[in-house]
Structure formats: structure tokens, C-alpha cells
């Protein structure tokens, strides 16, 4: 299929912006909008793919949790110690989600999935940043909204180390499973 002229694709992108604030970065047009307001307003089947790192602000961005983080008390936020002279940023503990929090997350991604699947062309792909704990919850909601689960990539996160009792056990397991890395 021949490529559309550059000016036509740019005019399509600009038309999708509606009256929202935009910024052009390279060949991309960034549209600053609330997706729950914007997605219902744009035509169906316009995107060949969606790449997103959505907010998971179910609990970690509640005012009381932000106040605890800012006061160094943590709350849902894990406040890692300085390491090697470097101050590390706080990270939310998603394992602290209650059933109510999980249901809120489910409803958010179910609703978002229904909106975004409408604007994706048949065969388009959705790439969504998540973590191993949340991905199961997010994918279940997206499947209910009409997406098919095709697979996932999970980034290996190495923290300050393993509990000393596990190291000999895992070193033994390396003989059977060479992909296990123990430091």
C-alpha cells in the first residue's frame, strides 16, 4: 500500500487533536488530553498501535499517601536507603492493594480498554508498561474489554541482593537451570 503524503498524515494527526494542547516532537504529535474525554471524540479505527505507560494511581497518589511519602514515613511508598552515595527515588508497593483497590484498578483498565479498542484498527497492537504483579490484573481487565492476550515481556529487576540463606540453594540450581544468575 503506498504511503500517504506527509502533509495528509500531519493533517490527520492535527485533526485528532481537536481543541487540546499539542506539542510536536520529531515526527510525533503529543496531545495533552484526558484519554477518557478524548478517545470517545475521535473516529474509530485510526490507530495502528498504542504504546503507553499508564498511571496506576489507584492508591499511591491519594493525598494521604503522598503526604506520608513527602514526610519520609512511606505508607504505600517504599523509601529505599541511599546506596553508594546515590539517593534513590521512592517506589510504590503494589502488594499493598486491598480488594477494593484491585477492583478500582480493574474498572479503570476495563473502561480504558473499551475506549482504546474502538480507535484501533483490526490487527493493531497494544504495548503497555506494567510489572509482574500488576500485569495479571491489567491483562484480565483488558481481555474483558475485548483485547486478546498475546504475550508479555517482563524486565528483570535486581535489587540489593538475595537473603543469604537462598544463595547456596540457587547456586546449586544453576547446575540445572543455567539461566539463573546468582551474584
What global shape is seen? globular
Helix content: 25-40%
Sequence of strands across the biggest β-sheet = 1-2
Task: Kindly estimate the percentage of residues that lie in beta strands according to DSSP.
Answer: 15-25%
Structural class: alpha+beta
Supply Rg.
Answer: 21 Å
Number of helical segments?
Answer: 6
Order of helices and strands: HEEHEHEEHEHH
Give a count of the beta strands, DSSP E runs of length 2 or more: 6
Low-confidence stretches: 1-5, 173-177
Kindly report how far apart the N and C termini lie.
Answer: 51 Å
Residue-averaged pLDDT, rounded?
A: 78
Largest sheet properties: 2 strands, antiparallel
Secondary structure elements and their pairing?
Layout: H1 6-16, E1 21-25, E2 28-32, H2 35-38, E3 47-52, H3 63-70, E4 77-78, E5 91-92, H4 99-119, E6 120-128, H5 132-144, H6 166-173
Parallel strand pairs: 3-6
Antiparallel strand pairs: 1-2, 4-5
Helix pairs in contact: 4-5
Q: What do you see in this structure?
A:
The chain has 183 residues and is of the alpha+beta class. Helices cover 36% and strands 16% of the residues. The protein has six helices and six strands, in the order αββαβαββαβαα. The chain has helices at residues 6-16, 35-38, 63-70, 99-119, 132-144, 166-173, and strands at 21-25, 28-32, 47-52, 77-78, 91-92, 120-128. The strands form three sheets. A two-stranded antiparallel ribbon has the order 1-2. Strands 3-6 form a two-stranded parallel sheet. It has a two-stranded antiparallel sheet with strand order 4-5. A hairpin with a 2-residue loop joins strand 1 and strand 2. Helix 4 (99-119) crosses helix 5. The longest helix is centred in the middle third of the chain and has 21 residues, at 99-119. The protein is globular. The N and C termini lie far apart (51 Å). Mean pLDDT is 78; it is low at 1-5 and 173-177.
Amino acid at each position: 500500500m503506498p504511503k500517504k503524503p506527509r502533509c495528509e498524515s500531519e493533517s490527520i494527526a492535527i485533526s485528532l487533536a481537536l481543541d487540546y494542547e499539542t506539542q510536536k516532537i520529531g515526527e510525533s504529535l503529543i496531545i495533552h488530553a484526558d484519554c477518557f474525554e478524548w478517545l470517545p471524540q475521535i473516529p474509530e479505527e485510526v490507530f495502528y498501535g498504542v504504546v503507553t505507560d499508564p498511571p496506576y494511581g489507584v492508591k499511591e497518589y491519594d493525598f494521604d499517601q503522598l503526604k506520608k511519602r513527602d514526610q519520609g514515613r512511606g505508607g504505600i511508598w517504599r523509601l529505599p536507603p541511599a546506596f553508594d552515595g546515590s539517593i534513590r527515588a521512592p517506589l510504590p508497593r503494589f502488594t499493598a492493594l486491598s480488594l477494593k483497590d484491585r477492583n478500582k484498578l480493574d474498572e479503570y483498565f476495563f473502561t480504558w480498554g473499551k475506549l482504546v479498542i474502538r480507535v484501533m484498527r483490526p490487527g493493531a497492537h497494544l504495548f503497555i508498561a506494567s510489572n509482574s504483579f500488576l500485569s495479571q490484573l491489567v491483562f484480565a481487565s483488558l481481555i474483558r474489554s475485548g483485547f486478546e492476550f498475546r504475550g508479555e515481556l517482563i524486565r528483570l529487576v535486581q535489587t540489593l541482593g538475595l537473603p543469604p540463606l537462598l544463595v547456596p540453594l540457587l547456586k546449586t540450581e544453576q547446575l540445572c537451570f543455567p539461566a539463573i544468575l546468582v551474584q
